[in-house]
Amino acid sequence: MPAEWPRPRGIAHPDHLDRDVATLPGVGPIVTKNLAKLGLHTIRDLLEHRPHRYEAAAEEVRIADLLAGEEEVAIAGEVLKTSVRRPSRRLSIVQARIADESGQITAVWFNQAWLAEKLQPGTLVRLRGQLKRNEFTVRSYDLNGASATADFAPVYPASDDVTVKKLRDLVGKALPHVCDFPDFLPARIAERAGLPGRADAFHALHRPRGEQDGERGRRRLAFDELIVLQVGLARRRRGREGELAPALGEPGELVSRYREWLPFQLTEHQERTIGEIDTDLAQPKPMERLLQGEVGSGKTVVALYTLLRAVEAGKRGTLMAPTETLAEQHFLTLEDPCRELGVRVALLTRSVKDDVADAQIVIGTHALIQEGVELEDLAVAVVDEQHRFGVEQRRAITGNRTPHVLHMTATPIPRTLALTVYGDLAVSEIAKPPADRKPVKTAWVTQERSSEAYKRLRKHLDEGRQAYVVCPLIEESETSVARAAEREAELLRKGELKSYRVGLLHGRLKPAERRELMAQFKARELDVLVATTVIEVGVDVPNATIMIVQEADRFGLAQLHQLRGRVGRGAEQSYCLLVSRAKEELTDSALARLEALVATTDGFELAEVDLEIRGEGQLLGSRQAGLSDLRFTRLRSDRKLLEQARELAGDLVDYEGPLNEEVERVFAGRDVQA
Ligand code: ADP
Ligand code: MG
């Protein structure tokens, strides 16, 4: 097969693709800076910025013929007058009276107050949207003959600073550079798979003649990235072949004491996982295992078991969390059983530096490992969420000896998919939570009815239960988040939660204060914990049975699901109340997210919904490398493509040439060698 692999056709200059966006005509420092905020630095980034949809064809109708309905339609006319209202702190509404020769209508935009200035009387507009309650809710618009409402125009992930329109323009400027992409698939194979050439694929993606055209382009690019991923993972797997780890033998006395200490029986899924881990640990080859399971499914119990296996072999274990708060929370959870078992645990974060010299288990942040703390005799590393633990980092902590690694994630993806995307990891799964759990009941209420939500919450408190109130998400600094949370807590202390003991948890608290607060909440000295998203993972108080999430529409699906996992951890029925703005003010995707959360508590199902809403492989965003490298793949609908790519990749592991360069680029610094 490699023999017929082509040299790049024409003169490709892959390096040119890595030139700064500022080298494009008309792109100055401000645009460059704003593009950087979207993660777009190079010409390649622009070309690989995938439209999340295309503006479908919309029927253009006369204003007099507008009907309320689901279908998006277009109208064209002239602005008569414009006004802005601000019904609340977080909401602004622009209204413009629009006329064509048949009649008039009021068009509305939410939270785009700056638009008012542009909608001067006499401005010609073309608007796409829907008629709702006698007003025209605008989805996209063009002023004086621009092209945003055109059919099949790509709609890119954009920001306030860089609009979709601007992106269309910039991608257009980058498009001539597609000839610099080497095409590493032989035309014959591409044709057989029904796929266009690579350069054509980019053209189709950004300038489709129709929906199908764009889709064909996307599929080709998805195929390419899947092949690159598979080849890279296969090489990484091979690269590890000679590595040695301490074989830990059979489970011993310490873990059996741990089992006795646990106030419950392990579930069948936990037992199976532990069995798989024990088998790995008995080998002199480093374990590389991914443990998937919902929040609250009992992963932490398995994690501690694994760490104790290291300790009983006279070695050490480490548990790494992505943030200080999470590391501290893990520390709180593990402190008790470890004391009971006579195991020495140390916490190591930027702010707390316990002496690790004689600790048997060290809990800390990933950052700590990256800084290269040397842990002698490390046999097991448990990595909680988000970060793939690179070989580089492993070397840093172990001075060239390789520990067994267990990665844990609470945002599971279907197993077959996990095996493909994390081709170099073995996968374990806790698909069922401990038996006496009842799924959390979720309700969605709008702002005006939030006092009913608090009434419900107080009822739980009066029955001796505890509660969480999650503050609105603010995308600013930790400091302003903390300040807003303080304000929120103050309001609640004076209002809805007047006669209750309310604690406040946010990221600005000192670690000691946070620990103290969590201990108080656990000991039931507080009734309510008002918190920012720092409670997202790790807090474990089974007596907390109700949670209110304020402005839930601002959170992502995975995040809400994680938050909700803080309740429903005991045998009692638990509740999650999502408070949002009025439905009319919500974006389609916010509506879809909230509806999905009410409909199901199944994380796998939610993961699929999330995929659908976002329509791309960024299911877990930057949370899990590997997946986040997939820009073009749709994990759900591209399964067949995935299989084809996997098959082909098997033949290509040793291939040298343009594919090789691409693999090296994508896996740069991630220890892949041909
Ligand atoms: P995860 O880490 O997956 O979020 P945890 O290990 O923190 O889950 O477990 C969540 C809660 O369920 C904890 O209170 C834990 O003590 C409890 N738990 C774990 N395993 C079981 C089990 N087999 N039976 C009953 N309760 C369990
Ligand atoms: Mg946990």
Give a short synopsis of this structure.
This protein has 674 residues and is an alpha/beta fold.
Structural features, described:
With 674 residues, this protein is of the alpha/beta class. Among the domains are: 57-151, Beta Barrel (OB fold (Dihydrolipoamide Acetyltransferase, E2P)); 253-430, P-loop containing nucleotide triphosphate hydrolases (Rossmann fold, 3-Layer(aba) Sandwich), CATH 3.40.50.300; 441-600, Rossmann fold, CATH 3.40.50.300. Helix content is 36%, strand content 19%. The strands form 4 sheets. The chain has a 7-stranded parallel sheet, with helices on both faces. A hairpin with a 2-residue loop joins strand 3 and strand 4 (91-99). Helix 5 (198-206) crosses helix 6 and helix 6 (211-239) packs across helix 21. It is globular. The two termini are 17 Å apart. Mean pLDDT is 83; it is low at 1-10 and 615-627. The protein binds adenosine-5'-diphosphate (ADP) and magnesium ion. Magnesium ion binds next to helix 9.
Q: Strands, helices and their partners?
A:
Blueprint: H1 29-37, H2 43-47, E1 53-54, E2 59-60, E3 73-88, E4 91-99, E5 104-110, E6 124-132, E7 135-143, E8 154-155, H3 164-174, H4 187-192, H5 198-206, H6 211-239, H7 253-261, H8 268-281, E9 288-293, H9 299-312, E10 316-321, H10 324-341, E11 345-348, E12 361-365, H11 366-370, E13 378-384, H12 391-398, E14 404-409, H13 415-421, E15 426-430, E16 441-446, H14 450-462, E17 466-470, H15 478-494, E18 502-505, H16 511-522, E19 528-531, E20 544-549, H17 557-564, E21 575-580, H18 588-599, H19 603-614, H20 639-652, H21 658-666
Helix pairs in contact: 5-6, 6-20, 6-21, 7-9, 8-9, 10-16, 18-19
The chain binds adenosine-5'-diphosphate and magnesium ion.
Magnesium ion (MG) binds next to α9.
